[in-house]
Amino acid sequence: SLLRPGVISIYQGQQVEQRIFVEGGFAEVNPKGLIVLAEAAAPMGELNLDDARQSLKDAEEDLGDARDPTEPERERLERAITVARARVEALEFQG
Predict the structure, then answer these.
(1) What is the residue-level pLDDT of the chain in tens, covering all 95 positions?
(2) By the 8 A CB rule, do 37 and 22 touch?
(3) Residue 48, C-beta contacts closer than 8 angstroms, at least 6 positions apart
């Protein structure tokens, strides 16, 4: 399955052991468990809300400043905004 940017919670029994933010990727469930192939990932405890908000602002400005971007460039810039927004939302929800 395709993963969108967001948080993956790792459980030990009924308790969350770790929360990891992934920028996207793929997940496969099999009889032995779950395999996640992420484009990039970081433990939530290593992320900072102020930094995430600044990254979102920067990504939005980059798109606004782009002069007649090619389709691949526009997609890259929009993807950066999507990832940054998901990171901010994950951190705000956690807080």
Answers:
(1) 999 999 999 999 999 999 999 999 999 999 998 999 999 999 999 999 999 999 999 999 999 999 999 999 999 999 999 999 999 999 999 86
(2) no
(3) 91
Pick from 10, 82, 5: nearest CA to 41? 5
Encode burial over 30-54: b for 16+ CB neighbours within 10 A, e otherwise.
Answer: eeeeeeeebeeeeebeebeeeebee
CB-based contacts of 58: which residues, under 8 Å, 6+ apart? 84
* Region of residue 13 (left: phi > 0; alpha: psi -120 to 50; beta: else): left
CA distance 55 to 90: 14
Q: pTM higher than 0.85 for the full model? A: yes
Q: How far apart are CA 19 and CA 43, in angstroms?
A: 6
